[in-house]
Design brief:
The protein has 113 residues and is of the alpha/beta class. It has one domain: Protein tyrosine phosphatase superfamily (Protein-Tyrosine Phosphatase, Chain A). It has a five-stranded mixed sheet, sandwiched between helices. α3 crosses α4. The longest helix has 13 residues. The radius of gyration is 13 Å and the shape is globular. The termini are far apart.
């Protein structure tokens, strides 16, 4: 199963909304960790639940963290937490939200500090 992602560099990439069914493909693409930045329910009832994605990620051998960040409301705490995850999680890391833009903005804010 293929999934869409955009590589920022060798250690980090972003993706639009992923599901539990995507996690094996994420592992097969070489990623070691996943950061979920999309809050549960943001996209309505059809949005895959973070718990389901996290369980599938762990089954695929990935480290995974749920760090919900509200679109358009990124805070200093969000950036600091994200920076810590970039330092502590095995690389390469894939982060996802609705489109990937929020994750890219977090990455650039965290790495510019």
């Amino acid at each position: 199963m293929a999934f869409d992602f955009h590589r920022i560099n060798d250690d980090f990439a972003v993706a639009p909304q992923l599901s539990a069914d995507d996690m094996q493909a994420v592992a097969e693409a070489g990623f070691k960790s996943v950061i979920i930045n999309r809050p549960d329910g943001e996209g309505g009832a059809n949005q895959p639940a973070s718990d389901d994605v996290m369980n599938a990620a762990k089954t695929a051998g990935l480290q995974v963290v749920y760090q919900p960040v509200i679109s358009g409301q990124m805070t200093v705490d969000n950036v600091e937490t994200f920076a810590g995850l970039l330092q502590s999680m095995p690389q390469p890391i894939l982060a996802y939200c609705r489109t990937g833009t929020r994750c890219a903005n977090l990455y650039y804010a965290a790495t510019e500090a």
